[in-house]
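Subject: two folds for Thursday's group meeting

Dear M.,

Sorry for the delay on this. The cluster queue was jammed most of the week, so I only got both jobs back this morning. I'm pasting them in the order they finished. Each block is the input sequence followed by the predicted structure tokens. Could you check whether the formatting survives your parser before we put anything on slides? The first protein is the one we discussed after the seminar.
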Amino acid sequence: MDLILTLVSGIAWTVVYVEAIRVGLRDRTYAMPVAALALNFAWESIYAVREFTDSGMTAQGVVNVVWAAADVVIVFTYLRFGRAELPRFVTRPMFAAWSVLVFATGFAVQGLFLAHFGAHDASRYSAFLQNLLMSGLFIGLFAARQGPRGQSLTIAVAKWLGTLAPTVLFGVLADAPFILGLGILCSVFDLVYIGLLLQARRRTTAAPVRSLPDPSR
């Protein structure tokens, strides 16, 4: 059961990352909130290295490497298109400095978790906390962009399922109430986000199609 849930999570989050790359390039934007992206990139980089160093070739280690590689491309979409999302007074040097600060902070936060809790607990606590942050930030992204630009229902559903699997694995089967509580909160926010995207899709579908004037008249 542990392996099945790990694979479900790995496949679902891989779908999130691949779709985020596709949507980001299509809409010329980035499809993951940058604070969550920085934390994710740091988490996956750090724990991919630790997994292979400590345990050798494992399913989770392979998954972490795949995620980190996908994150590199998503980071590229942020660096390529992210400045256009900011006010005009933000110059290229300001954007570069801000980006370095955000991604350095992501690694610093993961390092602090690791130093305080140790690898076993830090990997789980930080993963679920940043996942909850991402869930809220996706809703904020929808509000800031006033719609689903640079987002997709596939990302939202795959994120929800990719979080639900480890919630069952670590929160229920491993009997960890803290992780279970965070996982439930993630599901609440993820379902709200899915609802927003469904509502936006229905509005688009229901929008009347304007007929072109008849040139013969």
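Second protein, same layout:
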Amino acid sequence: MYIKRRTLIVLLILSLVSGSIITFTANNYIGQAWGSSHVAAPYAVQNAGSSGQGANGELGKVYEAYQLIQNSALEKKQKVQLVDGAIEGMVKTLDDPFSSYMNQKDTKDFNSSLQSTFEGIGAEVTFKNEKVTIVSPFKGSPAEKAGLHPEDQILKVNGKSLEGLSLSDAVMKIRGPKGTKAELEIVRAGTTEPMKVVVVRDDIPIETVYGETITKDGKTYGKLEITQFSENTARHFKNELKKLEAKQISGLIVDVRGNPGGLLNSVVDIANQLVPNKGVILQVQYGDGKKEVFRSEMGKAKYPIVVLADKGSASASEILAAGLKENGYKVVGTQSFGKGTVQNTLPLEDDSQLKITIAKWLTPDGNWIHKKGITPDVKVEQPAYFKATAIPDSKELAKDMNSPEVKNLQLILNGIGSNPGRQDGYFDSRTETAVKTFQGHHQLPATGKVDKKTAALLQEELIKRIKDKKNDIQLQTAVDVLKNEAK
């Protein structure tokens, strides 16, 4: 079944201590937006004409308002500004964070990033509760290394508020040349005060599939991590899967944690390799009620499969997770993001673009997971220190300070085994002792103050702990589930 797909994505690419920070990218092959042949080809709206009669009905009223504003308003605006404002207003009435309008400049800026690497922070964002909110950082990106997480809300960039800006304008504030710094003020669920994360913009290559084997109790299991569903992801997935199958794996873990989504054809092609018995992968339902049903081409199952998902698993990731779950496989992790809509990117005649939600997708059983997410069969949270952020190197932390940054420091200390005693953000004598002990173990002056060098080493040690698979409780649980399923 052929489906025309045009995409528009927000890609934010961030680094940590030595880090990176943000880019908003229009992309033909990466993202959550899908098009469909079910939708009529885009067309240009005809000029209403000087008489105002060229567009009938409601559009005549729009033209009348345009003329009145142009001729009578005290504050004069260029014609293109009035037209752009009218389109933005129409899109805003949809009350849909995934629909947007980009003018010529924005479209040109975003299309300039069409390449195999991106400058920025490496995370996808959306609007949620009128705040710029991270859907998920990409694997290995500066965003991930800096400790940004799904649901983090970005309030300010370099002291400038993002309030009232469109999503594209907000992201343009975060973008910047490679090597330059940006200070993000973020709010995280469960915290009462904003925290600051300093990052440095960088070039980030986009890799989408990572394969490896895991051995336990004499059995070999395969693990394939998918970071997003882009143009070549299905082909890379197939190649990596063949390598694993050649090693006689007893089961497979499909890891879509932190995967913000991507192309429909990509996830369908991958599901074709995993969903057994020609089962339903998903259904797409359009505004007129018509449905398209996507079925697997695969026959009998070869081995058990377990899916790893979390809050950063969105859109196409949820399609794969739901498709496997409702065809008999287990999902391990936490509740997924909950994006169940389909977008189409439509170019206008002047090279500006509209991205419009044109359908919703349903699970094989007909469930709509939008704003709900997928509930895992086995719910497992990661250790608390997995949620720590990089310590800003612009401010020294010392005894008797009380701040979100100190609370984050205590979270890191606890995670690396240097128990600070308390976790409430107050830098007391025990926290100071924990810092001194850490400094002594790393040949730093034992001042008890967290300066730039101490902050960098703390972050380095934290990343080692997080990357150690023994500390990945979700992965270890998935292996245990897979072991039981393999029996």
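Two things I noticed about the second structure. Residues 284 and 389 are 38 Å apart (CA to CA). The radius of gyration is 24 Å.

Cheers,
T.
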